[in-house]
Amino acid sequence: MPVITYRDALNQAIREEMQRDDRVFLMGEEVAVYQGAYKVSKGLLQEFGEMRVVDTPITELGFAGVGVGAAMVGLRPVIEFMTWNFALLAIDQVVNAAAKMLYMSGGQYNIPIVFRGPNGAALQLSGQHSQAWESWLAHIPGLKVVAPGTPYDAKGLLKSAIRDDNPVIMLEGEMLYNTKGEVPNDDEVLIPIGKAELKREGSHASIITHGKMILVALQAADQLAKEGINVDVVDLRTLRPIDIDAIVSTVRKTNRAVVLEEGWEISGIGAQVVDYIQRECFDDLDAPVVRVHQADVPMPYAKNLERAAKPDAAKTIAAVKKVMYME
Amino acid sequence: MATKVVMEALSPTMEEGRLVKWLKNEGDQVKHGETLAEVETDKAIMELVARGDGVLRKRILPENEAAPVGQLIAVIASPDENIDALIAGAGGAASSASAAPPAADVAPKAKETAEASPVPRTAGQAQGEASTPPQERVASTPPPAGTAPRTAAAAPAPSGNGGRTRSSPLARRMASERGLDLQAVQGSGPGGRIIKRDIEAAVAAAPAAQAAGVPGSRFAVPGVAGPDSRDVPLTQIRKTIARRLSESIGPIPTFYLTAELDMERVAEMRTAMAGMGDEYKVSFNDIALKAVATALAQHPEVNAHWLGDKIRYFNRVHLGMAVAIEDGLITPVIFDADRKRMSEISREARELAKRARERKLKPEEYTGSTFSVSNLGMFGIDQFTAIINPPEVGILAIGALEEKPVVVNGQLTPRKRMRVTMSCDHRVVDGALGARFLQTLRRLIENPLMLVY
Fold first, then answer.
1. Testing the interface with B: which of A284, A286, A323, A324 to mutate, by most B Cβ within 10 A?
2. DSSP three-state, residue B388
3. For burial by CB atoms within 10 Å, which of A219, B346, B381, B406 has the most?
4. What integer pLDDT is reported at residue A193 of this predicted model?
5. Residue B266, SS3?
6. How many percent of chain B have pLDDT more than 70?
């Protein structure tokens, strides 16, 4: 199986879907001539022309709205935000237009649109550009939210998102674009929205996570294995609808769970996962569930403080040991 | 490195112990495993042993005083070690375990070197701690804040005096599935919380104590093949019988079956054996025990435990034998009684009764019986009904042997007779089942040569 980057996996997904369906088009800042701020759209302008690979002004609310309108009349737009931090400017179109249109029109207009871009912190981009938005977006009925952490999942989920008849939010990561992994060279790499994956199997405890944090979880699992502790690593992949069965089956097996996410603690995705666990697995728990997340502060610019604020393998390992009563 | 000596749980149900006698003086050199003191539990007088080497520096608990399980009662340390902080922390340690706020909040980060192993302790490893928490090892000059609350965390939450047993939801579920009393389990989690590994250790420890017979293989038995027991889920009719009969008569719907057995041949046999020499003397009770054990082996349907949601039928016969002691009653167990020769049963019964009266029985010697026998014949009681020792489902009450006129072959003749009454738990044993068991017992007693078959 070819090994490619996350960036190229996204590129393949968009290219294959644009070849397959001429209603699909890509729009956003710097996606065409510059080939994408992160080169996800490399070569697409050349292959599909400027009617289908469209550069926009720096107007997130504007081009998100154009996307919603295009979807209403039958096209299938893929809207790239240079980062989800900038998408705050477009949030009215995402939440009030895209997510609500099917409902508000009495079922007349479904919105087959994908909003995608990097989410969460990179390195030293400070408070305004280092935020993980998944709990904001997953909060909204009418949206689907996917957060792939590997190239394979990125390709499979983006293709499923483009084919979905409803608005799908795709959360990528600046730190993920260069990561590599096996991706089948196949037009039908489709990963169903709403299905988690057990990325690693163990029996002592479960780490439940998604997106970029899957790399942190696997790193923690490797180190724990050296100490004889084997953990399940569950990659949620989709945050709305969330795969409750996968959460339940891992917790029933290990009786101990750590929920890891990139964002802040309060009202985070982890809080929702813990709710499912207490509801469905109360009698299976041998220890309170422990969450790992960003410190409850704007992301510091200083390197050392940024490191201290971010969730990492060491914090995850400590959490696993805590649920195993090993501290 | 100082070793804290704490009051250990020396019986499955012990909540506090009274220090009968210190066997070591302050200043004495002690070794790991050496007996430090005699402690009276709710059941017996037990030995408390040292869990570390050093000098017995301080005896905190005076003789004749009681302390809850987990409380610091002495300190073992090297001669020049400063143990002031340890002793100072002792006072509130055990009582804070029962206080409402979880001890984990007090010092959640306290490290315990004894638990340095990163791997979750397996049932086997943790087994020894199920009833006897190890005395904790602590650094020589520990900050009081770090050690004292940790002692509280290690101590089990007492179930009496307003405290409650803390347990994880999983531990509660596992305990109820296995018919285990949570009160009898030591919690190793924060604040004494009972967690999965504690249940696993308790479950592993229970059958192990039975399978091993008595430690030191005092009464070793030949190897036994096959499982020790077989669990049978309740059928609907059994559930209905159980529910309706319990409503009628109480938690254990008991009925009684009485039979009068002819003891002529047993008496002949006994006289003949005694004639061979003093070493062949056995009592009527010994013969009765042997006969009951043999009959039980043939009737596993009465050799069982009622576990609430299922019935456990035992393939081995562990015969409980009620012994009156000064201030009560205890039922030591003759393990694998059906596989033992009469001479072994006789010797074992005598020794167990003696040690029971001296209150020297170990917990594993009075737990694990599958059926019990109570004999009041020596008090001249003709017949009586004994009370079932749950979860067993039957007990046999043996009356006095007496000579009385009986019609044999149409002739009135004096015969030695003995009445036995079986109390049966009707949820498990129906009338006909109990009757068939007594039939077998009668055949064995009235034809005692069958006992050597």
1. A286
2. coil
3. B346
4. 98
5. helix
6. 77
**Do A171 and A22 have their domain in common?**
yes
Q: How confident is the model at residue B216 (pLDDT cuts 50, 70, 90)?
A: very low
For residues A11 and A44, the answer to whether their CB atoms sit within 8 Å is yes
Domain ranges in chain B?
2-211, 215-452
Return all residues near A302 (Cβ < 8 A) that are at least 6 apart: none
End-to-end CA separation in angstroms for chain A: 42
CA B286 to chain centre: 22
With beta carbons under 8 A apart, name residues in chain B contacting A317: none
Interior/surface letters A167-179, b for 16+ CB within 10 angstroms, e for the rest: bbbbbbbbebbeb
Boundary-marking domain end, from A152, A182, A212: A182
Look at residue A164 in the predicted model and tell me its pLDDT.
98
Residue B11 is predicted with a pLDDT of: 76
A30 is catalytic: no
CATH 3.30.559.10 for the B215-452 domain, yes or no: yes
Contacts of A204 by beta carbon, 8 Å cutoff, 6+ apart: A229, A230, A231, A254, A256, A320, A324, B120
- Host H or E run for residue B241: helix B236-249
User: pLDDT tens, A70-124?
Assistant: 999 999 999 999 999 999 999 999 999 999 999 999 999 999 999 999 999 999 9
| Domain B2-211 shares a fold with domain B215-452 | no
- Residues B299, B300, B301, B302, Cα dihedral to 10°: 80
**d(Cα B303, Cα B315) in Å, to the nearest integer?**
8
CA distance B286 to B291: 9
- Inter-chain residue contact A326 with B118, CB threshold 8 Å: yes
DSSP label of A148: -
Please answer yes or no on whether A324 and B173 come within 8 Å at the CB atom: no
Choose among B190, B238, B228: nearest CA to B206.
B228
Of A282, A325, A327, the CB nearest to B195: A325
Residue A192 resides in a domain: no
Greatest Cα pair distance, chain B, in angstroms, is 89
Do A277 and A152 fall into the same domain?
no
Q: How many CB atoms lie within 10 A of CB B429?
A: 25
> Is it the case that residue B91 has pLDDT exceeding 60?
no
Q: What is the pLDDT of residues B319-340, one digit of tens each?
A: 999 988 876 778 999 999 999 9
- The single residue of A30, A129, A139, A265 carrying the catalytic annotation is A129
CA distance B420 to B399: 6
A129 catalytic residue (yes or no): yes
Query: Is the CA virtual torsion B421, B422, B424, B428 positive or negative?
Result: negative
CB contact under 8 A, B196 and A286: yes
